[in-house]
Amino acid sequence: MPLDRLNPVLRSEISALEDEGRAKAPERVITEYLPAQGARGPRYRLAGSEMEFLRMNSNSYLSLSTHPDVIAAADAAAHRFGAGPGAVRFIDGTFGPHHELEKAIAGFVNRPAARIFNSAYTATLGVGLTLTSKQTYWIGDALNHNCIIRAMRIANVPRERRAIFRHNDTDHLEECLQAIPDGINRVIVIFDGIFSMRGDFAPVDRIDAVVRRHHERFAEGVTTVMDDSHGIGAYGATGRGTDEHCGVRADIMTGTFGKAFGVNGGFVAGSAEVADAIRQKADTYIYTNPLGAADAAAAVAAVRIADGDEGRRRLANLGARTQQFRAGLDRLGLESIPGPHPVVPLLVRDTDKARAWVRALYERGVLAVGLTFPVVPKGDETIRFQINAAHTEADIDELLGILADITS
Asked: Rounded to 5 degrees, what angle do the CA atoms 367, 373, 379 make?
């Protein structure tokens, strides 16, 4: 049997992950979506359980995945164009909804142009492949998402041409810029807009002020790249995310349609030249099928909703429910990390307690994510809650009541 020697090794590697606390828990299977009723928001059923669960671990911040206009757009496009594209973009795999989505998201994030990808992960990898040369130096935040770390690795950025600055520490970023060796033509400063484990945001205004002081030192300048996957659509006065909250735009943005917009896919937005370079140089764009036309059409509908009156109402409720939950944690004497974003971490600071509280939440019908060592440092054990626009005041009150019981 060809796998008879490999299988035991794989089992041993998985066992080692389990012993280290890094193995993923078995995947729960959602079997039913139960729409909102009265004062209660949506609930979910899971395979093997008759309970109805309040979902506090979803990235769907604007709760658009079940919106009838989004579903209708996907259905119409699937009937018109089929279920899949049948080819990569440059071999006649580009459909009308792809171009429409690129125009829509470029307009939403206020950039001249955009390219869409299957995911934000592959979009960020594509940026790394596109922007790297032998004279490029990369500087990243210490808490950057895995996709940014992988982007530098897949682009073969050597150790001597990259640096890491302490999380949100712009003084340290200044030191990293000053220490760049001779022979560098281009500098890329890359960071998350929202750091998804913590709910805090990059100080784009302060980062921009630092990098602009060094822009003229390099023949091709210093470029800022921000992955605002958790930010776009989820906060800011009109849902434009970290750009809008800080009042300064990063030069290039990567993001997703899979969080606030509630559908599938990712994007890169920047200048027309950046968009065209991605089309020519990004392997993760060139050599894989794009989103299906149905996914792209659904995303267009979601962006339009987010950009209209209904989107503003959803954003306002999202902000109100986030403030309600944060205020409730304060009243209970529970610790969190301050911030305007609907990712709200509950700092437990104890592995056994964090795991026990997550189990207790599940037993009371609440889905939440526990983050323990080595995913987070010892002493930073956390339960991450994610507020959605479909959550109601009654939902948050119910959750706070459960937390009061299990943490007392």
From this structure: 100
Distances (CA, A) of 268 to 246, 273, 315, 376, 406: 20, 12, 23, 29, 43
Separation CA 228–CA 102 (nearest Å): 17
- The pair phi, psi for residue 406, each rounded to 5°, is -80, -20
Euclidean distance between CA atoms 334 and 326, whole angstroms: 9
Whole-number average pLDDT of the chain:
95
Among 241, 366, 230, 238, which Cα is nearest to 308's? 238
Q: Are 266 and 122 in contact (CB under 8 A)?
A: yes
Please give the class, per CATH, of domain 68-306.
alpha beta
Q: What are the helix (H) ranges across 51-203?
A: 68-81, 96-108, 120-131, 146-154, 170-178
pLDDT at 375: 75
The CATH number of domain 6-58+311-407, selected from 3.30.110.70, 3.40.50.150, 3.90.1150.10, 3.40.190.10: 3.90.1150.10
What's the pTM?
Answer: 0.94
Q: Over the stretch 186-227, which tens digit does the pLDDT of each residue have?
A: 999 999 999 988 999 999 999 999 999 999 999 999 999 999
Q: Are 51 and 45 in contact (CB under 8 A)?
A: yes
In contact, 351 and 381? CB cutoff 8 Å: yes
Q: How far apart are CA 336 and CA 382, in angstroms?
A: 9
- DSSP characters for 36-91? -BTTB--EEEETT----BEE-----TT--TT-HHHHHHHHHHHHHH-SS--S-III
Does residue 160 surpass a pLDDT of 70? Answer: yes
Going by their DSSP bridges, the two strands 113-117 and 366-367 should be labelled as unpaired
Enzyme catalytic residues: 196, 230, 259
Q: Which SS3 state, helix, strand or coil, does residue 265 take?
A: coil
| Dist CA 272 CA 134 (whole Å) | 23
Is residue 204 within 8 A of residue 250, CB to CB? The reply is yes
The pair of structure tokens assigned to 301 is 């509908």
Cβ-based neighbour number of residue 50 at 10 Å: 6
Domain regions of the chain by residue span:
6-58+311-407, 68-306
pLDDT, tens digit, 9 for 90 and up, residues 60-70: 999 999 999 99
